[in-house]
Amino acid sequence: MLSYAVRRILMVIPVLLGMSLVVFFMIRAIPGNPAQVILGQKATKEAVAALTHKLGLDQPWYVQYIKYLGSLLHGDLGESIRTGAAISDEIWPYLAATLELSLAAMIIAVVIGVNAGIISAWFQNSWFDYIAMVLALIGVSMPIFWLGLMEQWVFAIQLDWLPTSGREDVRSPIEPITHLYLLDTLLAGNTEQFMQVVQHLILPSVALATIPMAIIARITRSSMLEVMKSDYIRTARAKGLSMFWVVYKHSLKNAIIPVLTVIGLQTGLLLGGAILTETIFSWPGIGRYIYDAIGYRDYPVIQSGILVIATIFIFINLIVDLLYAMIDPRIKYN
Amino acid sequence: MTLLALMLAVSMALVGCGKSEKTSSGATEKSSSQDTLVYGRGGDSVSLDPATVTDGESLKVTKNIFDTLLDYNDEDTTVKPALATEWTISKDGLTYTFKLRKGVKFHDGTDFNAEAVVFNFERWANGNADKFPYYGSMFGGYKNDESHVIKEVKAVDDYTVQFVLKRPQAPFLKNIAMPPFAIASPAAIKKYGDKFGENPVGTGPFIFKEWKRNERIVLEKNKDYWEKGYPKLNQLIFVSIPDNSARLNALLKGEIDLMEDLNPTDLKQVEGNKDFQIFKRPSMNVGYVGLTATRGPLKNKLVRQALNYAVDKKAIIDAFYAGQAEPAKNPMPPSIPGYNDAIQDYPFDLNKAKELLAKAGYPNGFEMELWAMPVPRPYMPDGKKIAEALQANFAKIGVKAKIVTYEWATYLDKLAKGEADAFLLGWTGDNGDADNFLYALLDKDSIGSNNYTYYSNDELHRILVEAQTVSDENKRNELYKKAQEIIKEDAPWIPLVHSTPLLAGKANIKGFKPHPTGSDKFTKVEFK
């Protein structure tokens, strides 16, 4: 298991290298000069030329790539063209915001998705099954943009229960320590602000959870149905075990592997793919950080941002792979 | 599933609200009814050193941290005293002498005086187009450039500063009043160096307190502000909420007090509500269809005129601007001195359009691309839909327009290379001067930058360059009127609208007057 883990971690290196190369070329293939974009519509030609030179964008591509790679190896993610700040300093608050949001969304998605899938399988072809699966279908195809605005309209404006957007009340801002606000408010022992953070989290995380929740429910259902047809389940039931134990202990353990795979992939996707949710709820996350950077052709931020997300994505899937062996002893990595 | 999630959310919310409702909404009520104003906008600033930026999002914040020697009047771009209390201009138009306000201090406690003014202008003049982009474009370049307008800036005494120019510059005072040329604390510039943009120190009504990128910028009252009794607000917070509808939701919920870029289509939602009010920014913009004069049938003036005849501007304004715009006939809005109101617009006349097309050799029309702006702007709230309306208009005279769009930076890049046939674009003026519209957008010198149509007319060029140096206001206006006639005849554009940008705010906001430049000073704003 350990050697497997080490092998997998080593495999990350060529993947990231390939990734950096692809991203490097892709963003340079888009038309639009960063200098022009940064200086804006009103800049003179001289200004654009001067900034292009200053940013080293007039150098051949391989020189730019090697320089970039060289600094990466030194742990330097580069400097943002737009703000001039080191990306390694700048990126964490955005990443923390996204982590908090994705985690909340995944908790909602997993708790509801897995249980809905199980109950649907348990009571296959019942009204619950039909309703849940229709809702799951709607969930998968729901435009997040619309859902987000509707959530704001209903829960924030009409019912006045929750805030519309942002991570905190700007009138009583949170003093960041780790930039994970749930943690920060707890560390500060401020329960009022903690509740404020929870309230701000609910609407965006529900919006973000919708699609993964629906996918998880559908996968859980089909995986459970398959397992519940097997002989050992029939035996367990014949022995007189209660249905609850049969389902939640015996079936689930065998049905969970594909569900876990989906959870891993979805978590990774949420980290980078929350741009719409982050825009509607003005959540200062990494999706918007990179999206804005694309608008400004802020090459270093795009490159390093994608690289950071890719790394997390790879590690989440590695953890999922290692979990397989823990859950199912038949799986061996030697 | 969704329903379940929402139910869960609601129940969690109820638990949460039960505990903290009083405190969180109570706090909101308390502060908003008093002295903190939260202003919701679409984007974040790039830097808070106004001389280094060109983006409106930066300047609308720095306008409140810094002062300029002169400022614009509340509702137009006529200049009035600010850090300079009075000024004289020599007869030859080459020497400007400013008397400075006494007893003004920067936020770091250092004195504002003539030396500080000289220091700032020296800093910009010794820079380059990359460091101080606006300086170069407004004052003809930098210290060693032939075209640089300012010969010398000198401190005559502690409170008198003199500008000597190489040649007269008609809009000099208007330029001086632009937010990028705000006077910053020399001590702070030396102290922070490259980081001054994150630690701005000026003399303005508000002191910079905090900037959390992509979230908010917090400013606090300058208690020693030179305008006695002002500012009224204790705190001014700029928050970024990128989506226009989400920003409106935040306003309706009371999380923000004032918002810009209200969708014209959302106007009704606010208008009938007694808790809110609408603010209309006086129009200083133009939205237009550019007709690239170097491409296919558009090379022919008659074709460009025909397309002008084919557009029903009123229908477009009713449909997409909720009536909050006036049809444009010239490339600049009527509020700018030199506007030629005698010009007759090409009326909406399909027969005349067809006639001109036939005369130009295209009796059956032709095919072209029509580029739609991918981002909303006050002068173009929905590029895609406006393009569709234009497409339908053009189809009536046999011109088949294919709608094309790109991501914004790509869009501008391709336009600058002259790759579009017809395209949607617009412009918001910087200083209320005709030069800032006509020369910037349609002179042959601006090809490759803001003259995206590649339209070039030597006579027009001669007139526009002459107008830059004429200091006699009447003569200058005559030149601009003539320029507009030439442009109308050559028809490189279909000028569409001068729109009225909409803002919405709480009903109890008092003293807020949106400025046509888009940079508002909050000195006199308060809550009733």
UniProtKB/TrEMBL annotation, chain A:
Quote any Pfam family the record assigns.
Answer: BPD_transp_1
Classify the protein's membrane topology as the record does: Multi-pass membrane protein
> What name appears for this protein in its UniProt entry?
Putative ABC transporter permease protein
Q: What protein family does this chain belong to?
A: Belongs to the binding-protein-dependent transport system permease family.
Entry keyword set: Cell membrane, Membrane, Transmembrane, Transmembrane helix, Transport
Transmembrane portions of the chain: 9-30, 101-123, 130-149, 201-220, 255-281, 301-324
Which InterPro entries does this UniProt record tie to the protein?
A: BPD_transp_1_N, MetI-like, MetI-like_sf
| Location in or out of the cell | Cell membrane
Q: What does the record list as GO biological process?
A: transmembrane transport
Q: Where is the ABC transmembrane type-1 domain?
A: 95-324
Lineage, top-rank taxon, reads Bacteria
Coiled coil located at which positions? Answer: none
| A GO cellular component annotation in the UniProt record | plasma membrane
* SUPFAM superfamilies for this protein: MetI-like (SSF161098)
**Alphabetized PANTHER family for the sequence:** DIPEPTIDE TRANSPORT SYSTEM PERMEASE PROTEIN DPPB-RELATED
